[in-house]
Amino acid sequence: SAEDILRDADIAMYRAKEAGRPSMIFDRQMHQEILDALNLETDLRTALDRGELLLHYQPIVDLETMKIAGFETLARWKHPERGVILPAEFIPVAEETGLIDRIDRIMLIDACMQLTRWRALPGGADIFVSVNIAASEFLREDFAEKTIGAVTALGAPPDGIVLEITENTLLHDMDATAAIMERLKKAGLRVALDDFGAGYSSLRYLNRLPVGLVKIDRTFIRALPDSTSDTGVIRAVISISRNLNMDSLAEGIETTQQLLWLRESGCRYGQGFLFSHAVEPSAAAAFVGRTLTTPSQA
Ligand code: C2E
Ligand code: MG
Ligand code: MG
Questions:
Q1: Ligand 1 centroid vs 8 CA: distance in angstroms?
Q2: Which of 10-24, 74-88, 227-241, 266-280 has maximum average pLDDT?
Q3: What would the mean pLDDT of 151-173 be, rounded to a whole number?
Q4: For residue 194, how far is its CA from the centre of ligand 2 (angstroms)?
Q5: Atom number of ligand 1 nearest to Cα 106
Q6: pLDDT value at position 174?
Q7: Which residues, judged by CB distance below 6 Å to any ligand atom, belong to the binding site of ligand 1?
């Protein structure tokens, strides 16, 4: 029908705009993708109301001492029919529909409560927790105030909270980002640059912004220790971080070889399947105060 044709033309037009192309030819797959996204959105709304969002925590290790230093909060969705869905699938939908603000708030509140618990455990006095924050959330006018307010209201120690943002956040508005980061820093919270090196990394903003932690993207770590171009980049990031008084963290450590190389290079923290996947809060608590065994030089 004429209506169907107009609808399909519309879909193709929006796709073309998204892709920054002058035109695009419609195919059925485009329509199906929109239906899928709509279903996912409806499901996600219900999921949040029903408490189907799971909060998992991945241990972060101090590479020199091998002590557990903190945890990253990672969302999982326990779908009643499909089982556990990973964030790569639902975070983009949540970002497009604005549901991300509810998700990030749920994550922050739980992280604050876990942190208070962990800090009271033996060996947990310096534990920190990091929470991923979507760019759209971080750049909201009231983000800093609301976040500081929530941390205070929950009685969590602000010096144990790390907010992870990606380089995309900085691309939007450097001055606004700097102002938000200064406000957070004043309240004692730290900001981490997540997936560093994966996007349009610029050294210009590193020294202009109060960044506390630089998380080196796992695509660089994956190449260790064989690719000389990647080892060069990692070494440079570790050394720049140190000179600017920021901590460095390597994401996605999967092998003992990678761990040994990173420790040798002076990277402060590490995170990856070699140590642990993201686990439930009760299992995370069991990590607090532990020192992992140091692998011997192979
Ligand atoms: P991210 O913040 O860079 O999180 C690290 C991702 O790397 C996690 O995937 C983690 O499971 C995975 N990972 C950790 N160690 C290893 C390893 O040794 N090898 C490999 N191959 N992967 C490893 P996950 O949980 O699927 O999360 C993917 C992304 O989704 C996160 O990337 C983050 O950007 C986003 N995300 C997760 N939870 C939230 C949330 O609550 N709010 C927001 N805004 N984003 C979230
Ligand atoms: Mg992260
Ligand atoms: Mg990351």
A1: 35
A2: 266-280
A3: 92
A4: 5
A5: 41
A6: 84
A7: 58, 74-75, 86-88, 91, 100, 103-104, 107, 132-134, 164, 194-195, 218, 251-254, 271-273, 278
pLDDT in tens, 17-46: 888 899 999 888 888 777 777 778 888 999
Q: Name the more confident of 61 and 83.
A: 61
Question: 53 pairs with which residues across the strands?
Answer: 77
Please state the atom number of ligand 1 nearest to the C-alpha of residue 217.
3
Which of 44, 57, 84, 91 has most ligand 1 atoms within 8 Å of its beta carbon, as the pocket-test mutant? 91
pTM recorded for the entire structure: 0.88
